Amino acid sequence: DIDECAIGSHNCSAAETCYNIQGSFRCLSFECPSNYRKVSDMRCERINCFNYLECQNTPVRITYYQLNFQTNIVVPAHIFRIGPSPAYAGDSIALTITKGNEEGFFSTRRLNAYTGIVYLQRQVSEPKDFLLDVEMKLWRQGTYTTFLAKIYIFITAHAY
């Protein structure tokens, strides 16, 4: 595998980030939706919300992740772990894949009250890109707070 990002042989624009994958690369750009501000390369935070329901149902934070696996990954495979940091006694989370799992390759499971995982539940037979939206709703002291993980998953051909 040649790291096109490191050696500069990619064709990503200045507004995009080059992400190396096995045998290739992807050009990714991260934009924050309106009412969010970029607080780091991979994270957006909500600026404000106007009523109780909107505050509960729109993510306080959107974080982007990139994961790279090969087609020969053994399933079920835990690929992503999520939970509040710090976690407190009494916290409880609910995880939902809200977008990107139309073919049912992925699922979620709670490991305990405040930790959940996303796992690959069936084999991906050929190289394929996914963008999963995974919503974590945190129940803490009588209030729900929503967090959104946008996970780019690149399944590449396995190297022989």
Automatic annotation (TrEMBL):
SUPFAM superfamilies: EGF/Laminin. Keywords: Calcium, Disulfide bond, EGF-like domain, Glycoprotein, Repeat, Secreted. It is found in: Secreted. Residues 1-45 form the EGF-like calcium-binding domain. InterPro entries: EGF-like_Ca-bd_dom (IPR001881), EGF_Ca-bd_CS (IPR018097), Fibulin_C (IPR055088), NOTCH1_EGF-like (IPR049883). GO terms for molecular function: calcium ion binding. GO terms for cellular component: extracellular region. The keyword Disulfide bond applies. This is FBLN2 protein.
